[in-house]
């Protein structure tokens, strides 16, 4: 049945007269002014503590790394400041702060992600292990190393120009060409992960980064290794309460990711490659129509039962509509695999065009190399909170356009 014209029998609790708004519509509404930030006050005792520097330690599991030879432990300066020049803050979330830095040794740009003090040590270690486990792929943000200093963890990563979420704020009228490029690149990344029995489980605009016209998947803090789940429980949509508990105990994380982009089956502890396909599909749904996605409620359930907003059907070509509908199927076993999507004729033609003509650098018009988005305060350098963190020894503690694109010919 055609999703745009069919009549659905929805449970009463999912029926509503509400509709999704575009982000542009919401921006024109009257909203209460945001509360200004309150500056942090430091006591003299805290300031004195910050002048004491702990010795940095490289943190790794199976891929041994070492600190830069530039570091001099005789200097009263952190590893971060000795080896990198902080340019600006390029991202901040509940987990930590991401800096754009220039390596003093090579003059290359990197991103350094510093975990906030309240983050659980095991979560930090899990992300480091996950990044090692993922490995290298052109459409995955490259991980270089991690170190610990003042009981805080730092991850050195490949620098990218901006996230898809940041781009969407600057350009609310995203082209369909860009949407197809996102689909192609992130499907490449997901196919690579899924071949290793790994699930990202947090595919969303904030975790898709742009670099010279290409898109890369980032942030593996919620990575799920399917090999850790007992065989009878894999891809099983009918788990009992005890089985769900056992599956959870096998995983390194108990978080399910951002509810806006979450597949419904994840709430029932069902982890399959279809979870990532759903996350990518709803990301394209959001970006192509500039939608403000719901976090919960009837509209949240409607999207997961195949009722997609009119704004999406108005903007997207029929080919893109059909593919996104397939990626958002409620039944996770019916969603196409990443490798299957890449085999579609439209995707094969896109790969040929890329090879012949290269990519449009979508982010370039919005980049100002001289702009400093956030002032980096001296006092954030060695933020120490002994109540919420603890020191970890490296390694020894860690252990060893048309429907033609659907043709498969």
Automatic annotation (TrEMBL):
Q: Which family does it belong to?
A: Belongs to the protein kinase superfamily. Ser/Thr protein kinase family. GCN2 subfamily.
The UniProt catalytic activity note for this protein reads: L-seryl-[protein] + ATP = O-phospho-L-seryl-[protein] + ADP + H(+); L-threonyl-[protein] + ATP = O-phospho-L-threonyl-[protein] + ADP + H(+)
Query: Might you name a Gene Ontology BP term for this protein?
Result: meiotic cell cycle
The superkingdom of the source organism is Eukaryota
The protein's name is non-specific serine/threonine protein kinase
Q: Which Gene3D superfamilies match?
A: Phosphorylase Kinase, domain 1, Transferase(Phosphotransferase) domain 1
One GO molecular function term of this record is: protein serine/threonine kinase activity
Chaperone listed as a keyword: no
> Which residue intervals define the domain Protein kinase in the entry?
84-347
Which SUPFAM superfamilies does the record associate with it?
A: Protein kinase-like (PK-like)
- Spans traversing the lipid bilayer: none
Gene Ontology CC terms, in alphabetical order: cytoplasm; nucleus
> Which keywords does this chain's UniProt record carry?
ATP-binding, Cell cycle, Kinase, Magnesium, Metal-binding, Nucleotide-binding, Serine/threonine-protein kinase, Transferase
């Amino acid at each position: 049945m055609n999703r745009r014209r069919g009549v659905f029998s929805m449970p009463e609790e999912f029926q509503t007269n509400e509709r999704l708004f575009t982000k542009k519509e919401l921006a024109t509404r009257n909203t209460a002014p945001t509360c200004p930030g309150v500056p942090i006050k430091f006591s003299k005792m805290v300031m004195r503590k910050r002048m004491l520097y702990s010795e940095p330690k490289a943190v790794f599991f199976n891929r041994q790394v070492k600190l830069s030879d530039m570091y001099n432990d005789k200097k009263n300066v952190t590893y971060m400041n000795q080896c990198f020049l902080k340019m600006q803050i390029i991202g901040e979330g509940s987990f930590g702060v991401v800096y754009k830095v220039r390596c003093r040794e090579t003059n290359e740009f990197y991103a350094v992600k510093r975990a906030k003090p309240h983050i659980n040590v095991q979560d930090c270690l899990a992300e480091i292990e996950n990044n090692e486990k993922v490995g290298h792929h052109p459409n995955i943000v490259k991980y270089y190393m991690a170190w610990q200093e003042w009981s805080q963890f730092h991850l050195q990563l490949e620098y990218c120009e901006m996230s898809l979420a940041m781009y969407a704020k600057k350009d609310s009228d995203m082209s369909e060409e860009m949407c197809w490029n996102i689909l192609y690149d992130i499907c490449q990344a997901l196919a690579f992960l899924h071949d290793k029995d790994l699930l990202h489980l947090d595919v969303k605009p904030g975790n898709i980064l742009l670099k010279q016209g290409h898109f890369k998947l980032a942030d593996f803090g919620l990575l799920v290794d399917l090999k850790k789940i007992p065989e009878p429980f894999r891809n099983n949509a009918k788990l009992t309460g005890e089985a769900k508990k056992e599956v959870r105990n096998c995983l390194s994380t108990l978080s399910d990711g951002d509810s806006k982009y979450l597949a419904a089956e994840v709430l029932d502890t069902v982890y399959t490659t279809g979870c990532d396909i759903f996350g990518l599909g709803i990301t394209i749904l959001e970006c192509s129509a500039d939608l403000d996605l719901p976090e919960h409620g009837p509209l949240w359930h409607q999207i997961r039962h195949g009722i997609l907003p009119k704004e999406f059907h108005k903007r997207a070509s029929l080919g893109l509509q059909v593919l996104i509908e397939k990626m958002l199927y409620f039944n996770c076993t019916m969603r196409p695999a990443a490798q299957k999507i890449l085999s579609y004729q439209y995707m094969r033609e896109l790969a040929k065009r890329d090879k012949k003509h290269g990519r449009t650098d979508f982010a370039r018009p919005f980049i100002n190399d001289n702009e400093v988005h956030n002032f980096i305060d001296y006092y954030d350098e060695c933020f120490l909170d002994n109540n919420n963190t603890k020191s970890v020894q490296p390694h020894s503690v860690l252990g060893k356009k048309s429907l033609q694109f659907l043709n498969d010919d």
